[in-house]
Amino acid sequence: MTTVPTPDPNRRLRRQICWLLIAVAVGIAVGHVLSAERVYEPSLAPPPGVEPDGRNQAWPTDGRPRPTPTFGSNDRSRWATVRALVDQGTFVIGRRDPARATSENEYGDYGIVFDEDGWHTVDKVLNPQTHEYYSSKPPLLTVLMAGEYWVLKHTLGWSIDQHTDEIVRIGLLTFNVLPLILYLWMIGRLAERYGATDWGRLFVVAAAAFGTLLSAFLITFSNHVPAALAALVALYAALPVAFPPPHPQPLFPEAGERGEKKAPPAADAVRLVVAGLAAGFLVNCELPAAAFVAALGLLLLIRAPMRTLIWFVPAPLLLIAVFFLLNHAATGQWLPVYEKLDTPWYQYPGSVWSTIHPGQGRGIEFAKYAEPRWMYAVHLLVGHHGWFSLTPINLLGLAGMFAALVVLVRRRPATPAPGWAAIAAGSLAVSIVVFVFYAFVTETANYGGWTNGPRWLLWLTPLWLFAMVPVVDWLGRRRWGRILCLALLALAVLSASYSPWNPWRHPWLYRWMDAQNWLPY
């Protein structure tokens, strides 16, 4: 006999509140995108007569700078490539010709990132053979944005050098804000499916909407928001295949809708293809996320081997192949150029990277010379760029991950729903691998440079939100637990809202420690 689920009288109200939270979050994001502009802050400028260094920034002295909706080297590197691809048909964003050298232009550099105000960037590399400059960023996301710009240029006649505001803002709305709606909707669906209380379900959605550092990156063209969305899509699509619910659901159902018949094979095939494409796109955005893709693929192989081999595996392999092919098409190199930090591609005369050596300056880029790796790891976890200190709601996710380990080790019934414990425990393993890579393996030990937090870890955010679901359910049944959750959320919102005008700014904890002279860089 088929058991019919008991109707939930609060389901409709929860759904309405979730959409209310989504509407507020999206409205805030749209407002920030429409008003996005590079701001020069007096607090970051050195006193008159003092040369700027890695701890401050030069104040414009040659007239009013050009107003621009781009913020700095990271996003300008991508936008310059978008412009080069559509307007010039090349990935080249600048060139070096010693014959052009002058007293003002020592090396003879020219091109998009040199000749016009508002396009300058340090996130570029120089091919030592061809003397051509390229963006140091992986190209797939940039190519996709170039496709949108191509459509705008050929339908509306807009040129990005003349209509920078319009094209950049449309790009941010389509690549960041529209995906935000899907992201929060999926978080709400997972909370509804795996949560047990009204408090817990709504808290997770509110945390996703306002309590993570991802929200600050909605106003800039970077890989962080698309990567987090890709990780969530891969998880969301794969879960019903790996762990079918007791009452199978149609593809992307409304909250609480259950069917009584087994989902058709075509639905699982679509889910696996979507999960595979999202996983492959995630690797293009964040190469260390290959650990997550491998873990998800292994889980699917164990749970549904033939369907995984047929429908899931080809999709990430295809996009991983695209990753290498685009790198070669862009720079002539199969591997991403950011792997060449200690080569002439980065260490060319005049490069800012060639000036970062022990004892030759101050600022966050010199952190790797001023502190041991164990201290770097501490700051990455609970210090000035801490995963937990800046976003303390992640402590709830950590508690959920350890609870999942207990569930698996003791072979207790998986709660709150089949598959949660395996995914949460796997997320902990993946997070440890990624953290160890950035803390102890990679040479780029600079916390991501000028940025509002541990941005290289932000794609893990939906996995930690998923893991916290039963924890906030448990805490929500207790008055002190609700107070604790609200306090953690308030602190997380503080960090997320600290510099809403520019995500490429140090977090409040870093600035406070720097003001106390506690940092040796």
What report would you give on this structure?
- The chain is mainly alpha-helical and 521 residues long.
- Strands 2-1-4-3 form a 4-stranded antiparallel sheet.
- Helix 9 packs across helix 10 (305-312), helix 14 (394-409) packs across helix 15 (420-441) and helix 17 (469-476) crosses helix 18.
- The longest helix has 31 residues, at 164-194.
- Helix content is 53%, strand content 2%.
- Strand 3 (124-126) and strand 4 (132-135) form a beta hairpin.
- The chain folds into 2 domains: 13-37 and 165-253 and 262-515, no CATH class; 72-162, no CATH class.
- It has helices at 11-34, 73-88, 112-115, 140-156, 164-194, 198-210, 224-242, 265-285, 290-303, 305-312, 314-331, 367-370, 373-382, 394-409, 420-441, 461-467, 469-476, 479-496, 508-515; strands spanning 94-96, 109-110, 124-126, 132-135.
Please specify the SSE layout and strand pairing.
Layout: H1 11-34, H2 73-88, E1 94-96, E2 109-110, H3 112-115, E3 124-126, E4 132-135, H4 140-156, H5 164-194, H6 198-210, H7 224-242, H8 265-285, H9 290-303, H10 305-312, H11 314-331, H12 367-370, H13 373-382, H14 394-409, H15 420-441, H16 461-467, H17 469-476, H18 479-496, H19 508-515
Antiparallel strand pairs: 1-2, 1-4, 3-4
Helix pairs in contact: 1-5, 1-6, 2-4, 5-6, 5-7, 6-17, 6-18, 7-8, 7-9, 8-10, 8-11, 9-10, 9-15, 13-15, 14-15, 14-16, 14-17, 15-16, 17-18
